[in-house]
Amino acid sequence: MLDLLIKGGTLIDGTGAPARVADVGIRGDEIVEIGTIDAPARRVIDARGLLVTPGWVDIHTHYDGQVTWDSQLAPSFWHGVTTIVMGNCGVGFAPVHKDKREWLIGVMEGVEDIPGAALSEGIQWEWESFPEYLDALDRRPYALNIAAQIPHAALRAYVMGERGAENEEATGEEIARMAEAVREGMEAGAFGFSTTRSIMHRAIDGARVPGATAGLPELEAIARAVGDSGRGIFEVAPNGLSGDDLLAPQQEIAWMKDISQRIGIPVTFLCLQVSSAPDLWRDLLAECRSARADGADVTPQVYSRAVGAILTLENKINPFFESPTMRSLDHLPFAERVARLKADPDLRAKIVEEGAQGQTRKGDHYKKLFGDAWKDMYPVTTPIDYEPDPANSISAIAQREGRDPRAVALDALLEDGGRGAILHQMAGYNYGDLEAQREMLSDPDTVLGGGDGGAHVAVICDAGVPTFMLTHWARDRTRGARLPLETVVKKQTSDTARTYGLTGRGQVSVGYKADINVIDFDRLGFLQPHLTSDLPTGAPRLMQKTTGYVATIVNGVVIQENGEDSGARPGGLLRSAPVRRQAPVAA
C-alpha cells in the first residue's frame, strides 16, 4: 500500500532529462516507485495535464531569526520551495554570548534590512554555541526542510568579543579557537560557513560586518575546519560585489580558487551584473572556468532577475520618504494621508519639489539610489512585469509627457487608493533587459541563488524567484530567448541540492525524499506583492502568493494545496553528513 500516488503527471525529474508522463509512488517520506503504477494508495492526486517536479531547493535565504518563531516560513512556503539554506552572507544568530544578542540583531538589521524590533521580540533564544542553535531548531516542526551555515560575523564576535566586532586582526590563538568552533558546528550538522567581504554589508550603526576584512590566514584556517569535516561549502559575498572596486572580484576569485584547490572544499560566491562594469560578470565566469580546469571547485551563485525593490507609500520607502512635507503627514491614518495628497495639487507639488533631495535616514546609500534613478524605476503593472521595457520607465514617461519625473513617480504611488508601487531595478538591469541573467543561468557551472528569502522584507520580495524561473524563463518571456523547462527545473533542484551536499533531495527519483511540486503550468503565476504587518511587533513585510501550485509535498506530506496551507508541518532541521573524501591537504 502506497501512502500517496501522483497519477499521470508530466514528470520533469530535476536531472535535466526530457519530460515524460509517469506515475510517482510514495511510501512514508520516500519515493518508492516511478512509472506505470497500479498499486493501491491511501491518497491519489490526479496529475493528468499537470507538471510533477522536485520541490525547489533555495540555497540563499535569511530566515535565521524567523525560524525561531515561524513554522510556515513564508513567502518561500507559497512558491513551491521545500528546502531552504540560511546563514548566508556571514550573518546569523549563532554562536552568541548573551551580551551580544542585540548586537547581532543590529548586524542583521543593517545587512539584511529585517526590522530589529521584530527580531528582538520574535527570536526565542535557546542557545549559545552553534550546535546548541541546531538543537533548538531540531526541536521545532516546520513546513519546509531547513539547513544552516555558520556565519562569520557571529563567530568572530563570539570568539574575539569587541575586537572581532570591530574587525581587528585575529591573533593566532583566536584563529585557532574560531576554527575549532567551526569544526564543532560542522560535526553537529552545519552545511557550511559563510562570510561577507562586500563594502555594502554594514551593521545598523554603519560599521562593516565582522569578517569583511579578515586576513587570508583566518579564512584559510576556517576553510580547513570545513574541509576536515568532509562536508559543507564556503559561501562568500565577495568584495567588489556592488561594483565599487573593479579589481576586487578577480582578486577574490584568486584566493577562493587557492583555498578550494589546496584544501579540497567547494566555494560559492554571489555574482551579478554591476553598473560600473556591466560585462564584468563574463570575466568572472571565465575565471571560474579556468579555476575548475585547474582542479578548484568555485561556483558563481547567479541571479534570475534584476535586484529590484518595491517602493510604496505604505512602507514609506520611496523617493519621497525624506520630504519634510511628506513626513508632516506621517501622523495621519493611511487612507486620510492619501486623500489629502490626492485632493491638494499644491501639497503634491511641494512634495515633488522636495523629493529625492537631501540627506536620508539611511544615509548616502538611499540618497544615491533615489537621487538619479528614474530610468531604473517602473510603475508596477498587474501582473507585475520583472523585465519591463525601458520605454515604460519613470524617466521615459516623464520625457514623453514633458513632466518632472518626480511628479510621474508620485502619481504612480497614488494609484489604487495609494497602494500603487514602483519597481526599482537597482542592479542587474544595465541594458534594460535580462539577457545577462539568461546567459549566466545558461552556464552549466553556475548555480541559482540570491533570492534572499526572509530579508529586506519591506522593499524586496524575491523569495518568489523559484516561481519566476518557470513563468518567465520557461513560458512567458517575450523580450528575448527563453530557457528549456527541464533546464529551469534542474537549475533550482538537483543543481542547488548537489552544491550544498543535500543528498537524497532535488530529484524525483526512487530512493529520494518525497519533496515534490504538482503544478498547473498554464495557471502558474504571481499575485501582486502586498504589504502585511504580521511580523512580531506588527512590523511590515512584503508578501507575495501564487496561483498554479496544485500541491506542494514535503517528506511525503502535502503542506499546501491550491493556495491553502494544509497545516501540516512535516519539515525540520537537516544535518549535514560527509559527502566527499577528504582531499590531500598541501603543506
TrEMBL record:
Gene Ontology MF annotations: hydrolase activity, acting on carbon-nitrogen (but not peptide) bonds, in cyclic amides
Amidohydrolase domain mapped to chain residues: 43-559
Domain of life: Bacteria
GO annotation, cellular component aspect: cytosol
Pfam families assigned: Amidohydro_3 (PF07969)
Matches recorded under InterPro entries: Amidohydro_3, Metal-dep_hydrolase_composite, Metal_Hydrolase, Metallo-dep_Hydrolases_sf
Keyword Transferase recorded: no
Keywords: Hydrolase
Region spans: Disordered: 564-587
PANTHER family noted in UniProt: COLLAPSIN RESPONSE MEDIATOR PROTEIN, HYDRANTOINASE/DIHYDROPYRIMIDINASE FAMILY MEMBER
Name this protein carries in UniProt: Amidohydrolase
Organism encoding this protein: Rhizorhabdus dicambivorans
